[in-house]
Design a protein that fits this description.
- It is a single chain.
- The protein is α+β, with helices and mostly antiparallel strands.
- The protein has five domains: 42 residues; 191 residues, Thrombin, subunit H (Beta Barrel); 78 residues, PDZ domain (Pdz3 Domain), CATH 2.30.42.10; 84 residues, PDZ domain (Pdz3 Domain, Roll); 199 residues, 3-Layer(aba) Sandwich (Rossmann fold).
- Helix content is 22%, strand content 29%.
- The strands form six sheets. The protein has an eight-stranded mixed beta sheet with strand order 27-28-30-29-31-32-33-34, sandwiched between helices. It has a six-stranded antiparallel β-barrel with strand order 1-2-3-6-5-4.
- β31, α10 and β32 form a beta-alpha-beta unit.
- The chain is globular, with a radius of gyration of 30 Å.
- It starts with a helix and ends in a 5-residue tail after the last helix.
Length: 651
């Protein structure tokens, strides 16, 4: 009993000590939070004088824009801002001076690689500038404060977060979870000491991204800043009025996971720096600009940091040899146009060579005497094993190139010389592809109208799987992106059920969360539904098509140009070309064809016409069909489109 009382006494005597410790801990935490808050406030106060408000005056694109932000980078009034908020046709810009006055400002040059613009304020006042954080001091987890001066000339708007990644968008940007929006585009991202990480600007993080401005990512906890440490060494070039452009090599790499695959060249674009320096199909890039390269993603990161006009060293492995070389990166590559032989391959053929199932009338193949049933066995000196190989081999040539084809007919091998031509743009007239003559393997996969469920997504999605689906037959994939309010799956099934069975197609119908409007950020949801179907069913990678009407058509263009690794055809119906889709250079290895459907009298008709001209100038194969208003797609046209989709593996 005495021991128990002693223990109770000791426990009770500890209570005041524990309470005192807890109180001290609370005070310490409060003190830490208070000091942290004061540090953040001090950082903002230190950096704010360098954040400049810009007022945009004149220019059609600027009518709905309010004030935007810029960052002083020299004391004599040079500013960096985001290109996305400074329209190219702006007639007048006014910048706030350190004394609070406004002064005329002009555009000096653009950095088209990092989405920045350099401006010069016409003022004698000296601007305070921020200390630049060196690249090696940028660490994930650091405090990050995004500043802008769009709401008020007197006060900066601010958002606090952390640095969430230090080397994004192929080495061009750091990433933050601070809330980023047009309210702070052009302003700085600073640390807790008031030093500048970089300039806030929208960029797209997608590896296959085209010229999308990336603004769709800013409501998702992803924002970007271009490190000042990267841009300041090029400031003198910009000050001279010289624009900066991304550097281009002119190669295509093996398709697949860029984080696993080596940087193996599968096509070298004619008249490119890579071709001029002697790179060849089959070379593996093992070093670039002094950095070791083991994966494609590493090459993209290193290349992303370089501008056009820069000379870089590289080493390639060719067989057992390591070959050093040097080249000057190009600003633009001459638009590449895919060559065309004029055949369709038999997809059931599982022997070496390419068995011809269709010869296009009046094509070079037809004129040379090739026939259905012939087997192409060799291109020049290269033995051909499959239609995918032949397609890639031809990607190293242009229309007007002369090549030698060896083909087998009735057991005899014969050579012919042909001169390649551009890919046809017309809707073809072809027979449906036959099923294999082997028994269909067993399959327990769902057919008919199937719901595609993604556990992490709230959007709905269905797919039309033909009742005659066979897992040993590669099916084309049509991604139908609905127009606002038009989400009737039963009608879609009526339109496509028979065609899907006839032409071996699967129709995927993802839906916008708000079925009355698509959000650009929903492209990622669409991509996930595509990946789900690819992982479940046998999909032919040569026949994946995005197809949509009006706003859905605009989304089909964004999907096609932002996912060049995936999409091989686009059918936009009465849809203007959205700026965020961008027209990326035509790629020898990642083929993309467009068939636009226009509607007479459409208010967007002129815009669509201009987009078609731009696509044609970039040497994309663009076909078009014009419909009477209201632009109803007939059963006959729908079948013609199904045949066009079936023909996208053309050679």
């Amino acid at each position: 009993m005495k021991n128990i009382n002693t223990m109770k006494y000791k426990l009770f005597s500890l209570i005041p000590i524990l309470l005192l410790f807890a109180e001290t801990l609370v005070y310490a935490q409060d003190d830490l939070l208070e000091r942290e808050e004061k540090s953040l406030q001090a950082a903002v106060a230190k950096a704010s004088p360098s954040v400049v408000q810009l007022e945009l005056v004149g220019g059609l694109e600027s009518q709905d824009l309010g004030p935007v932000s810029g960052l002083a980078v020299t004391t004599d009034g040079y500013l960096l801002a985001s290109s996305s908020i400074i329209p190219s046709n702006i007639t007048s810009i006014l910048a706030t001076t350190p004394s609070g006055k406004r002064a005329a400002t002009k555009i000096i040059a653009h950095d088209y690689s990092r989405n920045l613009v350099l401006l010069k304020v016409n003022s004698e006042e000296a601007y305070p500038i921020l200390e630049v954080i060196p690249r090696d001091e940028i660490v994930v987890g650091q405090w990050a404060i995004a500043l802008g001066r769009s709401f008020s000339r007197e006060f900066t708007n601010q958002s606090i977060g952390i640095v969430s990644a230090s080397n994004r968008v192929w080495g061009k940007a750091i990433q933050t979870d601070a809330k980023i929006s047009p309210a702070n585009y052009g302003g700085p991202l600073i640390d807790i000491q008031g030093r500048a990480f970089g300039v806030l600007t929208p960029l797209t993080p997608h590896p296959q991204g085209g010229q999308s401005d990336g603004s769709e990512w800013y409501d998702s906890g992803i924002g970007f800043a271009v490190p000042l440490a990267d841009i300041m060494p090029h400031l003198e070039t910009l000050k001279k009025g010289n624009d900066l452009y991304p550097g281009r090599l002119g190669i295509s790499l093996t398709a697949g996971n860029i984080y696993d695959l080596p940087a193996e060249v599968i096509a070298v674009q004619p008249k490119s720096p890579a071709r001029e320096t002697g790179l060849k199909k089959g070379d593996i890039i093992v070093e670039f600009s002094g950095q070791k390269i083991t994966r494609q993603s590493e090459l993209k990161h290193v290349l992303g940091a370089h501008y056009a006009g820069e000379t870089v060293s590289l080493k390639v492995q060719r067989g057992d040899e390591i070959i050093p070389s040097e080249l000057t990166l190009a600003e633009n590559l001459e638009p590449y146009q895919h060559p065309f032989l004029g055949i369709l391959p038999d997809r059931n053929h599982n022997q070496p060579g390419v068995l011809i199932r269709h010869v296009y009338p009046n094509s070079v193949a037809g004129q040379a005497g090739l026939k259905t049933g012939d087997t192409i066995s060799k291109l020049n000196e290269t033995v051909i094993q499959s239609h995918d190989q032949l397609r890639l081999e031809l990607a190293n040539f242009e229309p007007s190139a002369a090549v030698q084809i060896h083909y087998v007919r009735d057991g005899k091998t014969m050579p012919i010389e042909v001169t390649l031509e551009p890919v046809t743009r017309e809707l073809p007239l072809i027979q449906q592809h036959a099923f294999p003559d082997t028994p269909a393997p067993a399959s327990n996969l769902a057919t008919g109208l199937v719901e595609i469920k993604l556990p992490e997504e709230t959007n709905q999605c269905h797919a039309i799987i033909p009742d005659n689906y066979r897992p040993d037959v590669a099916h084309g994939l049509v991604i139908w992106l609905h127009s606002p309010g038009d989400v009737n799956d039963e009608v879609l099934k009526q339109h496509w059920e028979t065609l899907a069975a006839k032409y071996h197609l699967i129709v995927l119908a993802p839906k916008a969360e708000d079925t009355n409007r698509w959000q650009p950020s929903e492209i990622e949801f669409i991509r996930k539904t595509i990946d789900n179907v690819i992982n479940t069913y046998n999909i032919d990678r040569n026949r994946i098509v995005s197809f949509g009407r009006q706003a859905g058509g605009a989304m089909s263009l964004i999907l096609g140009f932002s996912h060049r690794d995936l999409v091989r055809g686009i059918i936009p119906v009465d849809a203007p070309f959205p700026l965020r889709a961008g027209i990326t250079p035509n790629d020898p290895a990642e083929r993309l064809a467009i068939h636009a459907i226009l509607v007479k009298g459409s208010p967007v008709g002129a815009t669509i016409g201009n987009a078609i001209k731009a696509l044609e100038a970039a040497k994309y194969p663009v076909g078009q069909t014009e419909l009477e208003s209201p632009g109803k797609i007939t059963d006959q046209l729908r079948e013609s489109l199904a045949q066009w989709i079936d023909s996208l593996d053309r050679i």
